[in-house]
Write a structure and sequence with these properties.
Layout lengths: L76 E5 L3 H11 L9 E6 L11 E3 L5 E3 L4 E3 L3 H8 L6 H4 L6 E5 L2 E6 L27 H10 L6 H5 L1 E2 L1 H4 L12 H6 L4 H6 L5 H8 L3 H8 L3 H14 L10 H13 L7 E3 L4 H15 L3 E4 L2 E7 L6 E2 L5 E2 L3 E6 L5 E6 L1 E4 L3 H9 L2 H4 L12 E11 L21 H6 L5 E4 L13 E6 L9 H6 L9 E8 L9 H16 L9 E14 L13 E3 L2 E3 L13 H20 L16 H16 L9 H10 L5
Parallel strand pairs: 1-2, 1-16, 2-10, 6-18, 16-23
Antiparallel strand pairs: 3-4, 5-9, 6-7, 7-8, 11-14, 12-13, 14-15, 17-20, 17-21, 18-19, 19-20, 22-23
Helix pairs in contact: 1-13, 1-19, 2-19, 10-12
């Protein structure tokens, strides 16, 4: 999507190589009151040299030296393509070699003219109003993401991010549940709750304490339905003569996923092979999930996490996504939000830090082709030596015209569709076995709509779940979002045809971003006419309307908000300003069999790749976290190949399985060995019945 306007900060450290000036953009891509603060430091790693690195190549061949008998060390030149989390994380890992002396030359190319951040980026318009390509959350298990943020000078995580925030889930039938903050910052390694044990008999009828006692003895995700605060109309009441939308039997049917959940091992290639070719719809069918549970709970989550319907989502991707975002630990679904633009609060200081280490940024630069450098022509490197580079990149730089860069290594840090397009035009990529089917990679189209609204004369207060507890949205809407500033909405909301397969999220930014909060207006004397309530609506899988004009998309967003929250539609006359940002096929689409197309982080020596779609069978992570993890893995491989001894690229391991899950996995391995299912395993009780009756799965 669009990127953030980046302040052009010149580094005081100058490179001896001259580069054309430009500005960047990458066609890459991919939730005070009831919030829980998180410690800034969780899984900090020592900045240590890369294990197994080799020494740098010496300049012993006279053809690579100037008229000097003294050999000089060749400084490798690395080009990183992509200005999002993956690209910056690669540069971060490698640039630690440049302190105190320069050991590697790093050039980061970003197709965006605005600045860094990839999908997370944005910009300010001529009125200094900020716009972003969607709001992006930081989940509790983003261990490597938090680790790299802690390494950025000038970034205080607790000042940049909110506390952990609850979210409210909506289906096409209305509000379903409030997902509370489940994790605890204390005794994290125990992976357990600190709870008040009910005191009998006085607490015998205290439903909340009883539920927490039961949940504390269950492994994730079984604790989530117990602790989630389901809406009364969805679970206990009958409305308009219709039965409750979710019955106890519906919730219990979720246990049918235990077989597949225990059988699928996130970091096992064989598990991915068994599950990736099958659609998630088959997974839920074999698990015996009731249609009501699927419609009310499972489907909405599919449309906002992997961002696709069950039939078009790999069963492996579904299990992996749910594992990372909800199942792998208590509180895995807990999420923090940036208190402003991610580009300004994270990527601006990050870029400054990288520039101080000698990283060169070229903005507004697109790569047309990557090829092997067949020329014997020598050129000056930053070390004042003459040398021959192995790779050549043909660039398109807009008004600056076309140019080339020669280098020793390239790291692709772009989205799957962008990588596929580049591979098709690049002999150096298309000749590699692992890129043969890159053209089959698909992307999800997203649309972000930001609405600046006239403030309502009544300020709603004492709202829960955000950084701030006040909003100037219409009171009816403020009340509908009183439990959280984040509404997570499944597909089919309001029977709007364009939303049949489109999920979306609604954000009240007055309760999330510092610059929009009501008290900021008051404390800084902002005139009433200059105050605004701010809503954001982010749509996922928005192919059916991405090509509409802005006004029509704004109208659709107003209808979607009204339908989801069951409130009066906002009048267009109350809109002061709006902005629609589009990202066509920009987010990774994890369709059935897509993992077979995902390469490892090293394509060959000198060619590496990172992103949330890369190395699916590796580290158990998704989205931003997967981008950072694969960036560190790619940097590690590059460092070994080129003898960079001081790269900071150690990966923080994902959360270990809980004892309960470990026990279930052992049982699943035994059952698979005794009677391996031909496709996906059925629910545990169906499998047990088959085993006892001697039946084999059809």
């Amino acid at each position: 999507m669009a990127k953030t306007t980046m302040r052009c900060i010149r580094s005081s450290v100058k490179s001896n190589i001259t580069l054309n000036e430009g500005t960047v953009m990458a066609a890459s891509i991919t939730h005070e009151h009831e919030t829980t603060r998180a410690p800034a430091h969780r899984h900090k790693l020592a900045r240590c040299p890369v294990a197994g690195t080799q020494t740098g190549q010496s300049m012993e061949n006279p053809r690579y030296a100037r008229a000097s008998a003294t050999p000089k060390t060749e400084v490798p030149r690395v080009v990183v393509i992509g200005g999002g989390w993956a690209g910056y994380a690669v540069a971060e890992s490698l640039s630690t070699n440049n302190t105190p002396s320069r050991a590697v030359e790093i050039i980061l190319l970003d197709a965006s003219k605005g600045g860094g951040g990839g999908l997370a980026g944005g910009y300010r318009d001529s009125k200094a109003r900020p716009f972003e390509a969607g709001i992006h959350g930081f989940w509790r298990e983003y261990r490597n993401t938090f680790d790299v943020m802690e390494s950025i000078e000038g970034v205080d995580i607790d000042a940049v991010l909110s506390g952990y925030t609850p979210s409210v889930l909506y289906s096409k039938n209305g509000r379903v549940a409030l997902a509370p903050v489940l994790g605890s910052d204390q005794n994290e390694d125990r992976d357990a709750f600190e709870i008040d044990v009910p005191q009998f008999p006085q607490d015998f009828w205290n439903e909340d304490k009883i539920r927490r006692l039961i949940a504390s003895n269950l492994p994730p995700p079984l604790d989530l339905p117990i602790l989630a605060q389901f809406d009364e109309k969805s679970i206990t009441a009958s409305t308009c003569g219709n039965p409750a939308r979710l019955r106890p039997i519906d919730l219990l049917s979720g246990l049918g996923l235990l077989g597949a959940w225990a059988d699928f091992e996130q970091e096992s290639p064989s598990s991915w092979k068994n599950y990736d070719s099958q659609p998630a719809s088959l997974l839920f069918e074999k698990a015996g999930i009731t249609s009501k549970l699927f419609e009310e709970l499972v489907s909405p989550l599919l449309h906002v996490l992997p961002m696709c319907p069950a039939y078009d989502c790999s069963a492996a991707a579904c299990l992996s996504c749910f594992h990372v975002f909800a199942l792998q630990s208590k509180g895995a679904f807990d999420v923090r939000w940036c208190r402003g633009s991610i580009g300004e609060k994270i990527f601006d200081p990050w870029r400054h830090q990288l520039e101080q280490r000698g990283v060169k940024f070229r903005s507004g630069t697109k790569v047309a082709c990557i090829k092997k450098n067949s020329s014997d022509q020598e050129e000056a490197s930053s070390g004042h030596t003459l040398r021959r580079y192995n790779l050549q990149l043909d660039l398109m730089e807009g008004d600056s015209g076309d140019s080339i860069i020669k280098c020793d290594a390239v790291v692709l840090a772009v989205g799957a569709v962008a990588a596929g397009k580049l591979a098709s035009s690049s002999p150096a990529l298309s000749s590699l076995p692992s890129t043969t089917n890159f053209d089959q990679l698909r992307g999800v189209t997203c649309v972000a709509v930001r609405l600046f609204l006239k403030p309502h004369q009544i300020v709603s207060e004492n709202l829960s779940g955000g950084c701030y507890n006040k909003t100037q949205l219409p009171p009816e809407m403020a009340n509908a979002m009183k439990d959280s500033p984040v509404a997570v909405c499944g597909a089919g909301i309001g029977r709007i045809s364009e939303l049949n397969e489109t999920g979306f999220c609604i954000y009240d930014l007055q309760r999330m971003h510092d610059e929009f909060n009501v008290d900021f207006y008051t404390n800084n004397g902002v005139a009433r006419d200059d105050q605004m309530a701010v809503l954001e609506v982010d749509f996922y899988r928005a192919d059916s309307f991405v090509d509409w004009d802005d006004d029509k998309i704004v109208q659709l967003s107003l209808k979607a908000i009204s339908a989801a929250l069951n409130t009066v539609c906002i009048d267009t006359h109350d809109i002061i300003d709006s902005k629609v940002l589009r990202a066509r096929k920009a987010v990774s689409h994890f369709a059935p069999s897509s993992a077979l197309l995902s390469p490892g982080t090293k394509l060959e020596k000198g060619m590496y790749i990172a992103g949330d779609w890369v190395d699916r069978t590796g580290h158990a992570s998704w989205s931003t976290e997967k981008s950072v993890v694969t960036a560190r893995q790619a940097a590690s491989a590059l460092s070994r190949d080129f003898g960079l001894k001081h790269s900071s690229c150690q990966v923080v391991p994902a959360a270990k399985d809980t004892p309960q899950l470990s026990a279930l996995r052992r049982s699943a391995r035994v059952l698979r060995a005794v009677s391996p299912p031909e496709t996906l395993p059925p629910s545990p009780w169906v499998l047990a019945k088959q085993l006892m009756s001697g039946m084999k799965e059809p």
